Amino acid sequence: MSDTPSHSTAVAVLTAAGSGTRLGGRGPKALVEICGESLLHRATRGLLAAGVIDHISITAPATAVERFTAEVADLADPGRIGVVVGSPASRQASVALGLAAALRARPDAEIVLVHDAARALTPPDLVRRIVAAVRSGHDAVVPGLPVVDTIKEVAVEEAIERVVGTPDRERLRAVQTPQGFSRATLEAAHRFGAGSADDEARSARDDAALVEAMGGQVAVVAGDPLALKVTTPLDLALAEILARGEREQS
């Protein structure tokens, strides 16, 4: 654990370079709308609403940088949000590009959050909890929810999958974003894992996995059901229902 000052600058990398093939869209996934608002706009708005993020670096498909920039232009001064080209190779490679851009914009940053635009309903309070946990001294923090289904480990190399184990679900968590890190820890983790960033099959599934791989400790705080990841049409339909309920209550 490290000592991160309570006044430390925090930046966020918002990953939004995905194509959204599984969602069935014809354009960038981040521009798919929930109740008339794109995933990108809603996720960016949520990060800013937390009141603890000083700069956001958004990773975009190479063909959509101008469109993404225009999409979030109404949310903050131009210097507070930047859009950079992500990598088609892997999410890990995209985060590395976004991290470099965020630190160029705010060289004084001591805390970095990595968030997925696909988790556009994430409450601002969860963002605040992650930043607070890093400021309290944890080098890496992820939000997680208890697993309610029984999980089976299977042998995938066979034509018909065969169960090889049943983990104790009391020890399992479904991990979400944003994930928070001290700057030094996240930079070191990406340096450590750089060799696998250009290979989707070998790249890290999340940034916490990079910290784990280099021997670091990752803390878990309570996640939030609203931080669900919009990946399939069913996820999108659920997100629409939740967003409508949120709008009716406000």
From TrEMBL:
Pathway: Isoprenoid biosynthesis; isopentenyl diphosphate biosynthesis via DXP pathway; isopentenyl diphosphate from 1-deoxy-D-xylulose 5-phosphate: step 2/6
The UniProt record lists the keyword Cytoplasm: no
InterPro entries per record: IspD, IspD/TarI, IspD/TarI_cytidylyltransf_bact, ISPD_synthase_CS, Nucleotide-diphossugar_trans
CDD domains linked to this entry: CDP-ME_synthetase (cd02516)
EC number: 2.7.7.60
Site for Positions MEP for the nucleophilic attack, residues: R169, K229
EC main group: transferase
Catalytic activity: 2-C-methyl-D-erythritol 4-phosphate + CTP + H(+) = 4-CDP-2-C-methyl-D-erythritol + diphosphate
Site (Transition state stabilizer): R22, K29
Secretion signal span: none
Keywords for this protein: Isoprene biosynthesis, Nucleotidyltransferase, Transferase
Example of a GO biological process term: isopentenyl diphosphate biosynthetic process, methylerythritol 4-phosphate pathway
Alphabetized PROSITE patterns for the sequence: ISPD
A single MF term (Gene Ontology): 2-C-methyl-D-erythritol 4-phosphate cytidylyltransferase activity
Lineage: superkingdom: Bacteria
Family: Belongs to the IspD/TarI cytidylyltransferase family. IspD subfamily.
HAMAP family noted in UniProt: IspD
Role of this protein: Catalyzes the formation of 4-diphosphocytidyl-2-C-methyl-D-erythritol from CTP and 2-C-methyl-D-erythritol 4-phosphate (MEP).
Protein's recorded name: 2-C-methyl-D-erythritol 4-phosphate cytidylyltransferase
